[in-house]
Design goal:
about 15% strand, 4 strands, four-stranded antiparallel sheet
């Protein structure tokens, strides 16, 4: 277990796991961006990067390469570039798995109530958010959407109220 304590004795964003959350075109247009960000903030995750952008064909092909042979790929590609998205990067202990749980199952109709998709989505495709699935995916996806200078590591005083001093499991 890696302990998230900086030399000054405080829990530190520097050594916490990071994950990417995209607010998809449906989330933006349904005015759900604030709701989604609020849920992640209230859980205790730390916002370390945020930007609005419109994905192009190359970014979509890279981001959804695991689905490129599926019959519905052209539909997802058209959906993801139909309007801007909001890309966010969050830090926290075991942030990747925690955020996937908060998002819920891919299909909004069967996602458990209480999750973002369970509460806010009725579709498999238009399911409001994307969240990284693995440490490898998170690293690649964060690099796809953010330059190093667009990610912030700051002394987050809230961490001492959110975690115990020795809590943590390393960045990845
Ligand atoms: P995830 O977003 O829960 O990780 P993935 O299987 O990685 O789900 O699929 C990526 C995205 O592709 C989904 O969030 C959804 O928008 C879309 N998608 C996945 N499966 C289908 C499908 O069967 N029909 C239409 N769209 C799909
Ligand atoms: Mg996925």
């Amino acid at each position: 277990m890696t302990v998230h304590i900086a030399t000054n004795g405080h829990l530190s964003l520097w050594c916490m796991q990071r994950t990417l959350v995209l607010i998809k075109p449906d989330g933006l247009q349904r005015r759900l961006a604030g709701e989604i960000i609020t849920r992640l903030e209230r859980k205790g995750l730390s916002l370390v990067g945020i930007k609005m952008l419109q994905m192009d064909d190359q970014a979509i092909a890279d981001h959804y390469k695991h689905l490129s042979t599926r019959p519905f790929f052209p539909e997802i590609a058209a959906f993801m570039k139909s309007a801007p998205i909001i890309a966010t990067c969050w830090a926290g202990v075991e942030a990747i798995a925690t955020v996937r749980i908060l998002c819920g199952a891919t299909n909004g109709r069967t996602a458990i109530p209480g999750t973002i998709r369970g509460d806010l989505a009725m579709s498999v495709q238009a399911n409001v958010v994307h969240a990284s699935e693995t440490p490898e995916a998170a690293e690649e996806e964060i690099r796809r959407f953010f330059a190093p200078t667009e990610l912030f590591e700051y002394p987050d005083k809230g961490l001492t109220l959110i975690y115990s001093p020795s809590e943590g499991s390393g960045r990845t």
